[in-house]
Amino acid sequence: MDIIKFSKVEEKIIIIRNTPVILDSDVAELYGVQTKEVNQAVKNNPDKFPKEYVIELKSSEFYDVRSKFLTANLEKTRTLPKAFGEKGLYMLATILKSPQATQTTIAIVETFAKIRELSRTVSKLSEATEDFQKKTLMQQGGEIMAELLGDDLKTTETETCLELNFALFKVKHTVKRNISDAK
């Protein structure tokens, strides 16, 4: 079984009602189960899923999501999808017990934690006044992004470039080397 990479989780995260969430069909795909199993877990355990853990989409939100993200999963659905916030995903992990669900939950927990850490670093960077502090925070941000993406970094002989587009902000980190250093 392959461990789920950050990029696989990150591409599933969307923003609904100013909250980063993953739709039930995408959760099912990541966890290696059917969407009905995810929704059955919520239905059978209502006390474990308060409103802030699972968002039930309104028709207008579903239309917006379907038009923005052309996925086959959304075309086939007869019911409005549910969207799981970070806490809802954690709770779902306590119910779904497959090895893939466990590995995916770990990847999701790590992804959300790294995104929060990166967000804090970017916020500190915008407030930094000293060059040394800025350089340290830039390095810290670069290290976090490298951890998140692992092998997804694109490298040429003279430049390494990493660009992340989140719904709320965009981060671009480029490291340029002298041609003499690249040889």
How would you sum up this structure, described in words?
It contains nine helices and seven strands. By secondary structure, it is of the alpha+beta class. The chain has a domain at 6-114. Helix 2 crosses helix 3, helix 6 (86-95) packs antiparallel against helix 7 (99-127) and helix 7 (99-127) runs antiparallel to helix 8. The mean pLDDT is 75. The strands form two sheets. The chain has a four-stranded antiparallel sheet. It has a three-stranded antiparallel sheet with strand order 5-6-7, with helices on one face.
Give the secondary structure arrangement, pairings included.
Elements: H1 6-10, E1 13-16, E2 19-23, H2 24-31, H3 35-44, E3 54-56, H4 59-68, H5 72-76, E4 82-84, H6 86-95, H7 99-127, H8 131-149, E5 154-155, E6 159-165, E7 170-176, H9 179-182
Antiparallel strand pairs: 1-2, 2-4, 3-4, 5-6, 6-7
Helix pairs in contact: 2-3, 6-7, 7-8
Task: Tell me the number of strands.
Answer: 7
Number of helices: 9
Q: How many strands, what sense, and barrel or not for the largest sheet?
A: 4 strands, antiparallel
Instruction: Extract low-pLDDT stretches.
Output: none
Q: Indicate the proportion of strand residues.
A: 15-25%
Share of helical residues: 40-55%
Tell me, rounded to a whole number, the average pLDDT.
Answer: 75
Assembly state here?
A: single chain
Structural class: alpha+beta
Major sheet: arrangement of strands: 1-2-4-3
Overall geometry comes to: elongated
